[in-house]
Amino acid sequence: MRPSSRDLDQMRTISIETNVTRYAEGSCMIKCGETHVLCTASIDDRVPPFLKNSGLGWVTAEYGMLPRATHTRMRREAKNGQSGRTQEIQRLIGRSLRAGIDRVALGERQITVDCDVIQADGGTRCASITGGWVALRLAINALMKAGDVISDPMLDHVAAVSCGIYAGQPVLDLDYPEDSEAGVDGNFVMMGSSRLVEVQMSAEGSTFSRDEMNTLMDLAEKGVGELVAAQKAAVS
Amino acid sequence: MRPSSRDLDQMRTISIETNVTRYAEGSCMIKCGETHVLCTASIDDRVPPFLKNSGLGWVTAEYGMLPRATHTRMRREAKNGQSGRTQEIQRLIGRSLRAGIDRVALGERQITVDCDVIQADGGTRCASITGGWVALRLAINALMKAGDVISDPMLDHVAAVSCGIYAGQPVLDLDYPEDSEAGVDGNFVMMGSSRLVEVQMSAEGSTFSRDEMNTLMDLAEKGVGELVAAQKAAVS
Amino acid sequence: MRPSSRDLDQMRTISIETNVTRYAEGSCMIKCGETHVLCTASIDDRVPPFLKNSGLGWVTAEYGMLPRATHTRMRREAKNGQSGRTQEIQRLIGRSLRAGIDRVALGERQITVDCDVIQADGGTRCASITGGWVALRLAINALMKAGDVISDPMLDHVAAVSCGIYAGQPVLDLDYPEDSEAGVDGNFVMMGSSRLVEVQMSAEGSTFSRDEMNTLMDLAEKGVGELVAAQKAAVS
Amino acid sequence: MRPSSRDLDQMRTISIETNVTRYAEGSCMIKCGETHVLCTASIDDRVPPFLKNSGLGWVTAEYGMLPRATHTRMRREAKNGQSGRTQEIQRLIGRSLRAGIDRVALGERQITVDCDVIQADGGTRCASITGGWVALRLAINALMKAGDVISDPMLDHVAAVSCGIYAGQPVLDLDYPEDSEAGVDGNFVMMGSSRLVEVQMSAEGSTFSRDEMNTLMDLAEKGVGELVAAQKAAVS
Amino acid sequence: MRPSSRDLDQMRTISIETNVTRYAEGSCMIKCGETHVLCTASIDDRVPPFLKNSGLGWVTAEYGMLPRATHTRMRREAKNGQSGRTQEIQRLIGRSLRAGIDRVALGERQITVDCDVIQADGGTRCASITGGWVALRLAINALMKAGDVISDPMLDHVAAVSCGIYAGQPVLDLDYPEDSEAGVDGNFVMMGSSRLVEVQMSAEGSTFSRDEMNTLMDLAEKGVGELVAAQKAAVS
Amino acid sequence: MRPSSRDLDQMRTISIETNVTRYAEGSCMIKCGETHVLCTASIDDRVPPFLKNSGLGWVTAEYGMLPRATHTRMRREAKNGQSGRTQEIQRLIGRSLRAGIDRVALGERQITVDCDVIQADGGTRCASITGGWVALRLAINALMKAGDVISDPMLDHVAAVSCGIYAGQPVLDLDYPEDSEAGVDGNFVMMGSSRLVEVQMSAEGSTFSRDEMNTLMDLAEKGVGELVAAQKAAVS
């Protein structure tokens, strides 16, 4: 019944290749099916002004899409400025990754996680969070190896998956053909412990019940479990 | 225990004054405690390009804050452009209001709902949705009275409330002192029927369990019920 | 003969409600007939760079209109940037208010007067100056009460009114139907003493004689006298 | 007593050289003492959208300053956008020139008058109006010679001069050293007939009486008379 | 003597992988040593306004760098707008690729070549041209295969290489350590036939003789020969 | 054969008038035939941040065109921002002028050379470089006369000329009718010694051989020789 013939609760194939760029302190290419996102983590000794002399660190994120990451070419944001959608997504990624960080242990430095979508087939913000965590983990490993950070500031894994109601059925990990048809869909950001960080459920031209929401959350827990396993394999 | 001495499940005083401006086809001033939002609905015969000759209507929203709606004066967005936060909020308001509309019945016209925060004490996006629905209802009443729209395009009430975990307790309808301290908070947009339209839960420097989430949703259902009653009183 | 049936030298009803917002150090809602402007005065300890360590204070103003303050909805300036008209108006308000201030007595601090038009029916810049003066007066009262300012920096009242030639007759305090038809109109900013601060007379598709100008100035003196009386009543 | 040793009612030397650029339909370099402005008039067959199929013409103006037209180099507006002051000035020039035009006789075309300040020593907006009129006159002469316009759309001369109170004395045609010290100054735009088009009087840190205003207007009439004579000599 | 131990006339290893993205009509990842550029070619049936109904096609290019393509993270252009350097580079790429196209044979359509630098180690604009040609070739192959274009509009190969004077010696294909030290460097765009399309030689804090220039051009011819061979291998 | 009837290797008439504005430390109006550029050099004691406390000076350039410098009026860049072409040109002018400067001898100060095109007939960037050098020379003369700079930081003359292939013939110093038709054209920046600083050759819809390039460089050497002679005459 799904365009991809997947089972309702079946994730797309996940692959996470680490250290894919030469300069970034941490990096990976995450592929969730045909959605490919390059994630890099860059360490900077300066923090934003509101944190100066606070002793606290900061993690922030920026998100972009190459113009031909999509079926039809989009206008380049460097020419037109970031859309509201882009800003919304990068704020979500930043908040999600900060949830997994002890900012005291990180110390007064900033890590910027750049998530650039090379190819898009739905779920780019979730892939960015899951891959962004890996890039962050590797960058912090480098800080710890260099002795710049003593106790590990990473509290737990953070990963994200989308779920939605497609053709009347609850499905896990929507691809683009499903996402563009689903009346209800949501993004679920969770810790390795399954505790929740962000829930964003949204209906366009539709509504949903609390029962449906609970079903979707069950699916999300299953999906995040598989993503966390993939993260573990990638960084070990 | 709450700074305002309210019970955990107690809303702030709600007041909705309608027809507060002279020109808008629908308008109200909604006050949720010390949060005051002026909502106007403006009808335009032209729809956005992607809907031309589709026979479908459109409802969109814009959101703004007066510079001194807050404790300390903010920079005027007209001088600096809309922030990511502003864009995120107005996209949410628009999606939420569209959930309550039959776009075929509305016909090929656009209604723009402007939500301008005169005074802010937390929960401005929720007040904007709840008040925006009233302005929209009044504008559509005018269309129906004029015979421009025959069958009522409004499917149900739409209203929104925030809930969060403050000082370890789940609380309903956060004001600013609570909002700025809460580790977890969320916005719940519901129909009059209690079916869900949007759920946005977010933790900053914290996480939450599914049990906590369910408690917050119970609170939200109670709150939205009271808001819908206030909407009914206002437009009757 | 006037659309509102007013006499040629008759002002619209003036009302000034003070302390209308919770946070601003001074505020009022001024209504000149159907023109409604919310004025707030915000105190900031920092002055613009060109005044650093000068011992002099500064008063500046910003002006905005809600998108549906007018008959037909205007584009939101936060999305498009401030128009030339907006910038011209806020520069005028700032200059006018500074004329009534002893900047040495104010001391090295800045007061920003925000004038936001809630509903527009002509004469918004004049109402902004007259109401802005009230907000400024209240903010300075607060500074004096707190002992931050010792001798009163306010030299005199400042108020403004428009006059013009409508249907061949000189009229006082133009409303929108008159303003949009008048070939000649002007804005007159005066002190409580009737001394002049700004005169801006302008003809679009027309011209005027010095005699006509003198007649308009007589009307303006009368109008400003009534506005100053209303200011006095409001702040007493 | 004046820095330039001029009499109180003495203008700076005026020179207007016509046809100074190769491509513009009308052009002149106007020099009012050390203030030099290059004015060009460009004819375009298209009118702004609000005039389409109205049969009416339009005259508009744009104003700029070369970065080193002034004592110290200013930032280039092409890099930073037009300032509020620039927009205010070009709106004034446009309104002033339109006052001298019969837009029916001009026919449905637009003339853009560009006023670029090559060197600034006070009074640049007045020189722009006076020189802009000459460029406009020459461009319209070309239209008439070509038979594109039958009856002359120019109703009268339009010229402008500044006056102010410097060191306690009313003076005509302020240069920069006077302008930067004057507590009161104004710009007066008049027709050849001495009828008024625009009066903009402004006090910064000062005020003025109606008697003083009348004295300044007497000076302005004298000055505009001399400017109109210079225009006549230039275009004959 | 070269940091990379290459011979003076030795290119970096070239690799061109084709069809690397799913949606673009043509694409490749070109690697010139550690410089990696993703090139996509997107076909659009609409041409820019100045070519409407001309029967002529258009090829244009856009260029970007991921923020962490470089040693230290750069600011994201989507947040700050394209720099002058970026605009200059994309204009060069566009002109270069158009030199190899018969715009009549292409027919009235536009192909946009996006060159996004994934990792930068000098010579990104040259790699963009060389890789951009491959993407363009593949996109045009698709047009021809579909019968949308009958006769091949590609006249010849187009490829580019940089040369410069490093440590007093003429060297081929500068990497970043050389580029940042070279007093003279240039970019040479050539056809497969060795005819020249663009020469951009530039000295910063230095100058060069015609003899030196000729030596560099000899090197460039050698380098472009190797690049054209790599292009041939890639598209065959 | 040339539209202007010049010989293939004949320059347009060159005139350089110095000290044409009152405030700039150095200035000239350069006329190359009908191309007229006003060049000013402005000295600033502050250097850009990357040179603070380096002891090194900086020379930079900005370029602009008056809207009616051209056959048909262009949009004013102050309203629309600088085009890519403008930025490319001003970067070239700056690099070229820096090639003639000993930045140690200049000392830690910045000189900004503004090149504003009053009238354009092809070759505006070359005229800007040649005239910009004169303005720079005069400004540095002033610094030396004032004793602010001891040893002359100017190493040699810098001048520029365009050459191209027009109607199949190599020609020197293209004017606009030639430039708009030429398939190949280039800009050559040289020192007084004939050593090269920049070479920018470009073909649009065409290509060129190395022999053709050598012929154009011979022409350029001849042209620059004449420009340097004109510079010498102007500053002596």
TrEMBL record, chains A, B, C, D, E, F:
- Exoribonuclease phosphorolytic domain: residues covered: 10-139, 158-223
Q: Name one GO molecular function term.
A: tRNA nucleotidyltransferase activity
* Reactions catalysed, as given in the entry: tRNA(n+1) + phosphate = tRNA(n) + a ribonucleoside 5'-diphosphate
Which residues does the annotation say bind phosphate? R85, G123, T124, R125
Secretion signal span: none
State its Enzyme Commission number(s). Answer: 2.7.7.56
Q: Which UniProt keywords apply?
A: Nucleotidyltransferase, RNA-binding, rRNA processing, Transferase, tRNA processing, tRNA-binding
Instruction: Identify one Pfam family in the record.
Output: RNase_PH
Which EC class is this protein assigned? Answer: transferase
Q: Which family does it belong to?
A: Belongs to the RNase PH family.
What does this protein's UniProt record list under function?
Phosphorolytic 3'-5' exoribonuclease that plays an important role in tRNA 3'-end maturation. Removes nucleotide residues following the 3'-CCA terminus of tRNAs; can also add nucleotides to the ends of RNA molecules by using nucleoside diphosphates as substrates, but this may not be physiologically important. Probably plays a role in initiation of 16S rRNA degradation (leading to ribosome degradation) during starvation.
**Subunit composition?**
Homohexameric ring arranged as a trimer of dimers.
NCBIfam families the UniProt entry points to: RNasePH (TIGR01966)
Protein name per UniProt = Ribonuclease PH
